[in-house]
């Protein structure tokens, strides 16, 4: 009998990689997220259920230059789960689809619970400071509250010299946004929140964008509840 819990065990720190998802305005700070490549996922499947214990089937949904989407149906011991992956090439989309389907079985799911982090970044070389992740202990990686994304991004309006000396209190819309972010994080939606926040580069560059940001967060909460 296979121990399904082994699917969700943390990967060795040496197999966890990091990619840049966003840069600050001056490009000296980078938001990085952890991931494992498809080969690590395949090794985990072989290890837990054996090479003969799983099958994968793919369907290309979108095939345009630079924009591909693939659906993966992953079957482990007669249990099947599906998900869709995206990429700028078919290879990337196939890999993403496999990893997303495997996450539904618990493979690498803990990586999604590790919030994105801002680290030092060299704009000249593209090198960045790699966060430390101790083997077998994902909880040792400091978490970044989704609202911290807002702190790292440039403010919607530049502060004057006098304002810079004494930061003003956050206006009410920003407070409401933070409350929504807190609630969504409690519901396990940190990744989706960060994606929306990055879309608007913080609070948005205008009151209209701030309202749209708030509306998207509200819609996300409504869809989850």
N-to-C order of helices and strands? EEHEEEHHEHHHHH
- The geometry reads as globular
Number of helices: 8
- Spatial order of strands in the largest sheet: 1-2-6
Beta content comes to 15-25%
Give the tally of β-strands: 6
Helix content: 25-40%
Mean pLDDT: 78
Main sheet overview: 3 strands, antiparallel
Q: Which stretches are low in confidence, meaning pLDDT under 50 for 5 or more residues running? A: 135-171
Cα-atom radius of gyration: 20 Å
Structural class: alpha+beta
How widely separated are the two ends? 37 Å
Structure in words:
25% of the residues are buried. The radius of gyration is 20 Å and the shape is globular. α6 (172-186) runs parallel beside α8 (207-224). The chain has helices spanning 38-49, 90-103, 109-113, 148-152, 161-165, 172-186, 190-199, 207-224, and strands at 17-23, 29-35, 54-64, 67-76, 79-87, 117-120. It has 225 residues and is an alpha+beta fold. The longest helix is centred in the C-terminal third of the chain and has 18 residues, at 207-224. It has a three-stranded antiparallel beta sheet with strand order 1-2-6, with no helix packed on it. It has a three-stranded antiparallel beta sheet with strand order 3-4-5.
Task: Briefly summarize what is shown.
By secondary structure, the protein is α+β, with helices and mostly antiparallel strands. The protein contains 8 helices and 6 strands, in the order ββαβββααβααααα.
